[in-house]
Structure to design on (724 residues):
C-alpha cells in the first residue's frame, strides 16, 4: 500500500463511518417504530425460535454499527468490494449491458411489482444499496467521480427516484387490489375535509424549514465547484454540458447534433405537452393506479427513467476523456483508444450487399442531378425510415387484428387495434410516432453495438444524417 | 390585567396590518384564509387525502419554495457580482475566499440543482396520479413550460462564474444550436437559404449566434445570459407560476379524483 492509498482511505473513513452509522440509525428507528406501533410480523420459526421483523432490523442495525466502528477505527481499507468483482462490474457497466440491463431490471420490477412493493422487500433493497455505496466509496476512482460536488445531487436523484418510484407503485398496487375487490381507490374512499389552517399551512411551514435546513447543511458540507478562470484556448477533456443535459449529449453518440440537440429535445417538450390530449383513457384520474393505465405507466417510465435519467447517470459517471466509456471503478485515462469503425447503411447496401460502388453524380453535373444521385444512394435509408414511421403503425394494428383472429389475443402486450379504434386515425398516428421516436434511440444503440451501423440516411453534403 | 400580547393585538397598528384576529378558533381559521393576501391562494378547507405527504410528495410546493430561495439569494449575489470578463471570475473567487456570506453562492447553486430535481419529481407524481387529465390539461402544459424555464434558468446561471466548467458546458450545450435545421449554419437545409448565391445562414447570423450574441462564448454571451438569468426568465417563470397556481384552484382544486 503506497502513500496515496493511505491518505485516500483516511480522507474517506469519516464519511464511510457516518454513512454506516446513518444506515444503522435508520434500521434501529424502523425496528423501534414496528415494535411501538405493534406492526411486528413473524418471518420464520427455525427450531421454534420466532424471528420477527423487529429482530431482523435490529440485527441489521447492529451489523451497520460494527461496520461504522470498523471504518472509524481505521479498518476502512478492508471494507471494499474485492478487486475481481470491481473489474467485473466495470465490464458489465459498458453501455450495451448497462442500458439493456436497466431496461430488463425495470421490466422485471414492473412485472413483479406486487413482490417489490412489499415494505420488507423494499427495505431490504434500500439496505443493500446503502451497503453497496459504503463498500464502493472506498475505491479511489469511484469516490472521485461520485463525490464531485456537482455530481452529488445526481447520486441523491437516483436514491430519490428509487424511493418515489417505490412509493408510487406501492400506492398503485394497493389501489389496484382494492379495485379488484370492488372497492374504490383510497383517494376516492376518503372524503374527509380539513381546514387549511392549520393542517396545510403548518405542513407547508415545516417543509420550508426542512428544505432550508437541508440546503444549509448541504452548503456547509460541500463547496460549490470553481475551476480555473475561463480560457477559450484550453479545451477540457471531457467537455460536458450541465448534468441535466447529459442525456442529450449522450445521444450525440448515436445521432447527429440536429437530431440530438434540436429535434429530439423539441419533440420531448411538445410530446410532454401533448400527453393530456392524446391520452384518452378516462380512468385513473387523481389516484395512483397501474392496472388501469398500464400503457401510459410503462411509456412514461420508459421515457423518464430509462431514456432521460439512465442516460444522465451514464453521461455523468461513466463518460470520461474523449467521451469514452469508463466503469465506475476505472481510472480516467485520456489515452484510452476505442476502435470505431462505424458504417452507414448505404455502404452496407451498395458495397457490401450488391458489390457496387455507391452511386455518385458524374463530374460537373448540375445541383439537381447531384441531388438525384444522393437520393438514389440513400434510398435504402429512406425506405427504412418510411417503413418505420409510416408503414409500421398501421402494420401493428393489422398484426394485432390477425393475432386476435387466430385467438392469441391474450398474448398481446399492448392491443394496438383497440388503441387505434379508441384514438382515431390522427391521434393514433401521433401516439405511435411519438413512441416509435422514443424507441428509435434504443434501436439505434443496439444496431451500433451489434453491426456498427452509423446512420440510416447519411447526406453529409447537406449536414443531414439520421 | 391584559397581557402584553393582548395590548399589542388590540392596538391600532396591529389591527391595521392584520385584517383578522388570531386563528385560534374555527371561525377565525376560516376568516384568516379569506382575508389574508398571502393565504387567500388556498381554499378554506381541503380534502384530507389531497394533502397527505405520501400522496403529493410536496414536490410542487418545495419547487416553489426553492424558486423563492433562488430569488432571494440571487438578489443578494447580484449586489456582489459583476458580469464582465474583468470581474466575473474574481467576484466568485472572492465569494469563496473572502466574502463573509459566501455561503450564499452554495445555497444558490445547490438550490438550483435541487429545484431541477424537485420539478422532475413533481411532474412524475402528477403523471403517476393521472392529475393531468381533464379538466387539468392546460395546467399540465403550463407545467411543462415551467419545467423548460427551470432548465433554462439553471443553464444560463451555469455560465456566470466564468470558469472553465462554465464556458465549456455552455459551449457544448449551445453548439447544438449550430445544427438547427435551416437556422443553424451546420444544420440540414441551411445551404438552401441563399440569395443570389450568398448564404443567409452563416456562423454570424444563425440560431447559435442569436443565443450567444457572438460566434463563440464571450463577453456578449456573459451579458446576454446574465440578463436572461436575472431578469427575463425569472419574470416569465413568476407569471406562469401565478397562472399555474390560479389554474390549480380553478380546475378543481388540489390534486385528487374529481
Amino acid at each position: 500500500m503506497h502513500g496515496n492509498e493511505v491518505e485516500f482511505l483516511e480522507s474517506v473513513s469519516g464519511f464511510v463511518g457516518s454513512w454506516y452509522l446513518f444506515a444503522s440509525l435508520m434500521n434501529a428507528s424502523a425496528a423501534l417504530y414496528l415494535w411501538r406501533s405493534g406492526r411486528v410480523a413473524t418471518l420464520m420459526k427455525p427450531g421454534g425460535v420466532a424471528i420477527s421483523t423487529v429482530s431482523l432490523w435490529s440485527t441489521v442495525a447492529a451489523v451497520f454499527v460494527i461496520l461504522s466502528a470498523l471504518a472509524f477505527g481505521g479498518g476502512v481499507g478492508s471494507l471494499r468490494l474485492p478487486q475481481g468483482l470491481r473489474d467485473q462490474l466495470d465490464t458489465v457497466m459498458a453501455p450495451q449491458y448497462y442500458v439493456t440491463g436497466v431496461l430488463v431490471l425495470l421490466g422485471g420490477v414492473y412485472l413483479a411489482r406486487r413482490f417489490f412493493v412489499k415494505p420488507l422487500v423494499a427495505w431490504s433493497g434500500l439496505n443493500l444499496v446503502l451497503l453497496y455505496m459504503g463498500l464502493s466509496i472506498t475505491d479511489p476512482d469511484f469516490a472521485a467521480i461520485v463525490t464531485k460536488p456537482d455530481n452529488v445531487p445526481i447520486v441523491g436523484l437516483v436514491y430519490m427516484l428509487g424511493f418515489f418510484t417505490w412509493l408510487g407503485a406501492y400506492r398503485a398496487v394497493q389501489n389496484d387490489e382494492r379495485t379488484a375487490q370492488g372497492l374504490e381507490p383510497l383517494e376516492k374512499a376518503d372524503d374527509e375535509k380539513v381546514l387549511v389552517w392549520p393542517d396545510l399551512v403548518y405542513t407547508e411551514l415545516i417543509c420550508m424549514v426542512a428544505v432550508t435546513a437541508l440546503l444549509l447543511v448541504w452548503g456547509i458540507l460541500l463547496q460549490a465547484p470553481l475551476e480555473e478562470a475561463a480560457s477559450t484556448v484550453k479545451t477540457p477533456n471531457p467537455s460536458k454540458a450541465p448534468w441535466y443535459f447529459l442525456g442529450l449529449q449522450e445521444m450525440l453518440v448515436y445521432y447527429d447534433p440536429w437530431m440530438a440537440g434540436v429535434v429530439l429535445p423539441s419533440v420531448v417538450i411538445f410530446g410532454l405537452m401533448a400527453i393530456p390530449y392524446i391520452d384518452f383513457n378516462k380512468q385513473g384520474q387523481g389516484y395512483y393506479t397501474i392496472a388501469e393505465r398500464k400503457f401510459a405507466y410503462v411509456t412514461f417510465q420508459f421515457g423518464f427513467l430509462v431514456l432521460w435519467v439512465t442516460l444522465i447517470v451514464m453521461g455523468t459517471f461513466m463518460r470520461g476523456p474523449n467521451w469514452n466509456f469508463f466503469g465506475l471503478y476505472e481510472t480516467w485515462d485520456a489515452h484510452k483508444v476505442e476502435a470505431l469503425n462505424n458504417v452507414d447503411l448505404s455502404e452496407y447496401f451498395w458495397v457490401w450487399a450488391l458489390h457496387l460502388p455507391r452511386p455518385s453524380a458524374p463530374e460537373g453535373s448540375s445541383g439537381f442531378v447531384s441531388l438525384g444521385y444522393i437520393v438514389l444512394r440513400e434510398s435504402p435509408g429512406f425506405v427504412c425510415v418510411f417503413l418505420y414511421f409510416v408503414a409500421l403503425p398501421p402494420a401493428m394494428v393489422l398484426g394485432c387484428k390477425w393475432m386476435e383472429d387466430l385467438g392469441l389475443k391474450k398474448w398481446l402486450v399492448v392491443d394496438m387495434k383497440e388503441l387505434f379504434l379508441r384514438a382515431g386515425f390522427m391521434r393514433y398516428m401521433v401516439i405511435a410516432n411519438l413512441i416509435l421516436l422514443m424507441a428509435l434511440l434504443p434501436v439505434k444503440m443496439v444496431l451500433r453495438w451489434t453491426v456498427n451501423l452509423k446512420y440510416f440516411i447519411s447526406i453529409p453534403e447537406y449536414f443531414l444524417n439520421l | 390585567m391584559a397581557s402584553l400580547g393582548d395590548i399589542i393585538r388590540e392596538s391600532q397598528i396591529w389591527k391595521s396590518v392584520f385584517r383578522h384576529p388570531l386563528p385560534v378558533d374555527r371561525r377565525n381559521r376560516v376568516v384568516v384564509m379569506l382575508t389574508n393576501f398571502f393565504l387567500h391562494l388556498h381554499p378554506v378547507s381541503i380534502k384530507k387525502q389531497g394533502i397527505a405527504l405520501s400522496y403529493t410528495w410536496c414536490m410542487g410546493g418545495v419547487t416553489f419554495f426553492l424558486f423563492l430561495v433562488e430569488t432571494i439569494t440571487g438578489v443578494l449575489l447580484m449586489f456582489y457580482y459583476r458580469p464582465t470578463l474583468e470581474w466575473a471570475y474574481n467576484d466568485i473567487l472572492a465569494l469563496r475566499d473572502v466574502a463573509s456570506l459566501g455561503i450564499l453562492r452554495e445555497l444558490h447553486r445547490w438550490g438550483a440543482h435541487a429545484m431541477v430535481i424537485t420539478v422532475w419529481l413533481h411532474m412524475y407524481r402528477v403523471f403517476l396520479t393521472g392529475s393531468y387529465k381533464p379538466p387539468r390539461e392546460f395546467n399540465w402544459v403550463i407545467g411543462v413550460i415551467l419545467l423548460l424555464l427551470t432548465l433554462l434558468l439553471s443553464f444560463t446561471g451555469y455560465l456566470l462564474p466564468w470558469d472553465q466548467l462554465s464556458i465549456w458546458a455552455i459551449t457544448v450545450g449551445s453548439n447544438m444550436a449550430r445544427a438547427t435545421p435551416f437556422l443553424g449554419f451546420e444544420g440540414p437545409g441551411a445551404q438552401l437559404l441563399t440569395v443570389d448565391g450568398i448564404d443567409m445562414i452563416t456562423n454570424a447570423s444563425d440560431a447559435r449566434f442569436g443565443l450567444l450574441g457572438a460566434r463563440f462564448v464571450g463577453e456578449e454571451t456573459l451579458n446576454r445570459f446574465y440578463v436572461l438569468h436575472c431578469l427575463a426568465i425569472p419574470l416569465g417563470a413568476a407569471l406562469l407560476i401565478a397562472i399555474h397556481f390560479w389554474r390549480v384552484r380553478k380546475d378543481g382544486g388540489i390534486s385528487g379524483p374529481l
